[in-house]
Design brief:
By secondary structure, this protein is α+β, with helices and mostly antiparallel strands. The protein has one domain: LCP protein (Aminopeptidase), CATH 3.40.630.190. It has helices at residues 3-13, 51-54, 121-129, 132-147, 159-168, 203-211, 218-239, 244-254, 264-273, 303-313; strands at 61-68, 79-87, 94-98, 106-109, 112-114, 153-157, 172-176, 180-182, 192-194, 197-201, 255-257, 280-283, 290-292, 299-301. The strands form five sheets. A six-stranded mixed sheet has the order 11-6-1-2-3-12, sandwiched between helices. The chain has a two-stranded antiparallel sheet with strand order 4-5. A two-stranded antiparallel ribbon has the order 7-10. The longest helix is centred in the C-terminal third of the chain and has 22 residues, at 218-239. The chain is globular. It starts with a helix and ends in a 5-residue tail after the last helix.
Amino acid sequence: MLALVILLAVSGCAELAPGSADEDAPQRGTSGTKVAKADPTPKPTKPPLQVADLVGEDGRLTVLILGSDFREGVIGSRTDAVIVASVNPRSGKVALVSLPRDTVNVPIAPGVVYPGRINSLFWEYERASGKPKNALKKVKRDLAYAFDTEIDYYALVEFDGLIRLVNSIGGVDVRVAQKLVDPTMHLGQSGLKLKKGRRELDGKTALAFTRSRHSDSDYDRSRRQHQVLKAAAQKVRKRGAEQLGALVDVARKKVVTDLPLRAAPALLELAERADLDKVRSVVLEPGVYARPLAGTYTITPRVPAQQQLFDRLMKPVE
């Protein structure tokens, strides 16, 4: 989900625990199909990466985090959570920026805009190639262009993956700003019901908390996603190495990422440096960063304002 980046990156890239799968273990893509196992012939062990190896040319670690709605009985794989997370390894400053799922006309290349809702971009690429990783690389490239910023890696997680990741760290603690009731969430017989105040959420409740939007808006939902990511990152850092084995087991099966396995030591070092109490969190909602399109529920980006925001929050490290 540094935020979910720490949760996903550290779990997905941590050194393998005894008995866990190796780097070539099969992964389940967003279509639900398994990727064939690679040749089991042992490969030479490579040395761990350092922070300097992991950061981009701008001196930062920046990851595109996508939350997919893929699940049994649902056609397609829309990414209703689109979050760019970045950490400055020197200052420890962390930034989270969400692009709302109903954003249209996002510039993805010179003279080219994506006319559909941005949550369908990954699915379109995946349908065309049949390869989730190729699709993720293209989405990462496109959004780097849209925001005029460097994005180093991607991480994709589905519903069940988020549930298992949160459960593997013993749940997360969040502050509920106001009573939240959403009977449309598949959570027991009455749906999601949370009272105002600090609450401990298990995996299923955390998923409902990050998906619910019927009692407020998609923009409030994005802010709740940031809450869960920050809470998860804080829990991972607090528990340290003790939860890595469980996280690795879940992430190997449920997270698709191009963060290299050997990045674990550097990611743990970045997690220690990160100032998780002062995360700069922004949703690109109507107003300064977007405008609503008349007669629709979609919004279109104010591109210069969005790019200026990224330039401020994710400027190169001096």
